[in-house]
Write a structure and sequence with these properties.
Layout: H1 2-56, E1 63-89, E2 96-121, H2 124-131, H3 136-143, H4 149-156, E3 157-163, E4 170-174, H5 180-198, E5 203-214, H6 223-227, E6 231-234, E7 241-254, H7 263-274, E8 280-285, E9 296-302, H8 305-314, E10 344-346, E11 353-359, E12 362-367, H9 378-394, E13 406-409
Parallel strand pairs: 7-8
Antiparallel strand pairs: 1-2, 2-13, 3-4, 3-9, 5-7, 6-7, 8-9, 10-12, 11-12
Length: 410
């Protein structure tokens, strides 16, 4: 019977080892994947904040990306038996006895060997990307994904070029706190647009219109023309036929639905926008539509990514933003803090911060501001999230960066 007993114990031990290893493996991998993701995300956020600190001290910007994280997991398990035979004599009876003692050892271990590849993002292509103004396509993409439109406009624009209707006169409302009066009016304008958006009365998107040419019906259309959307339109019997094509034009910010305008007026707005480069966005707040008591016709001029970082860096101490009261014609807004993104500069490490970095004997941090509801202050963290998204839209694919990666193995 003893051999059967040993075989039974061996089978139980094997089952326990397999069970223990199968439990340890997914748990270890789950923990590692989650921790790597948190770590990479935090590193990218802190590098972004570090570059704002560099700009604060008028140093050059430098970005580094983690291109690859490879981890090897070594799962090991062990089991063993030990036994001891004990012999003795019962006192007074002379009869002996034998006692067997058994012990069972079971263990498992996990070894993790990560390798991280980091790539310095540099070169002509990337430099052009961070120095070139952001275009209207990226702006339109972010506008519909941002909680506060005023935040995006304060973050991404140099200012508003205002055109006086009928006179051709032009004035500039700068997004620069050092030019106090112009900056106040800029802030009033963008918060007015944010209030309209809160009421779902603001339209941001491309101007769509029909482009037409009067041509005879026997004019041949190639397959290439048909693929590009050209088609014949017959307005009526005896009238000239028209060759038309739908055009998706420039982005515009309006307080009305452009689709309700006549086709010729939409085309005129597009042609007006075409006079300026893609980093200019037409804004047309008309009387007679919601918010039209505070009319505006002009264009926003977009910044480059480097200019955004420099604006935030200067706002730390050199030219800080300040409180601006909204115009009396503006409706209610959910938030309009003095600073676009509040970055704290301290000598000591901050006690409560969402992100913090040290540079030039100072600590730079984004504070966890607790509001009346007990949650994080939405505006500040939202501003940093948008800034991170602009970075992702600006940097190139690291897999195509012609730079040798730096490998760090643990």
């Amino acid at each position: 019977m003893k051999p059967l007993k040993w075989r039974g114990l061996t089978g139980v031990a094997s089952a326990l080892v397999i069970s223990l290893t199968s439990c340890v493996s997914p748990l270890a991998m789950h923990r590692a994947v989650m921790e790597y993701d948190r770590t990479v995300s935090r590193i990218e956020s802190e590098l972004l904040l570090l570059n704002i600190a560099r700009a604060r001290h008028h140093r050059h910007l430098h970005f580094t990306a983690i291109s690859n994280v490879a981890a090897t997991f070594d799962f090991r398990s062990n089991a063993g038996f030990s036994g001891e035979l004990f012999e003795g004599v019962f006192s007074g009876e002379g009869r002996g006895f034998t006692k067997n003692f058994y012990s069972f050892n079971l263990g498992a271990s996990v070894a993790e060997n990560p390798t991280v590849n980091i790539i310095p993002i540099q070169g002509e292509e990337f430099t052009k990307r961070i120095l070139a103004p952001i275009d209207e396509i990226k702006f339109g993409f972010l506008f519909h994904r941002t909680v506060f439109p005023a935040l995006l406009l304060r973050l991404m624009t140099h200012g508003i070029v205002v055109e006086q209707e009928g006179t051709g006169a032009v004035s500039v409302l700068p997004n620069n706190p050092s030019q106090v009066e112009g900056y106040r009016e800029f802030r009033r304008r963008v918060i007015h647009l944010s209030a309209l958006n809160l009421e779902h009365k603001l339209h941001v998107g491309p101007l769509v219109f029909e482009e037409v040419w009067p041509l005879p019906l026997d004019h041949p259309l190639t397959s290439n023309a048909l693929e590009k959307g050209y088609q014949w339109t017959q307005l009526g019997e005896g009238q000239a036929s028209l060759l038309s094509r739908k055009v998706i034009g420039r982005v515009a910010i309006t307080n009305y639905d452009p689709a309700r305008l006549p086709n010729e007026e939409r085309r005129h707005l597009h042609e007006e926008s075409q006079r300026y480069p893609p980093d200019h966005i037409l804004v047309d707040i008309r009387p007679g539509s919601p918010g039209g008591t505070y009319p505006l016709h002009g264009r926003f001029q977009l910044r480059s990514f480097q200019a955004i970082l420099e604006f935030l860096a200067e706002g730390i101490a050199e030219t800080p933003e300040f409180e601006v009261e909204k115009d009396l014609r503006t409706g209610p807004v959910s938030a309009d803090p003095p600073r676009t993104l509040e970055i704290m500069e301290t000598k000591a490490p901050p006690s409560e911060a969402a992100f913090a970095v040290e540079f030039e004997s100072h600590w730079y941090s984004i504070r966890k501001s607790v509001g009346e509801t007990g949650g994080l202050h939405a505006w500040n963290l939202e501003a940093f999230r948008v800034l991170y998204q602009i970075l992702q839209l600006t940097v190139t694919d690291v897999a195509r960066v012609p730079t040798f990666p730096i490998t760090i193995a643990k």
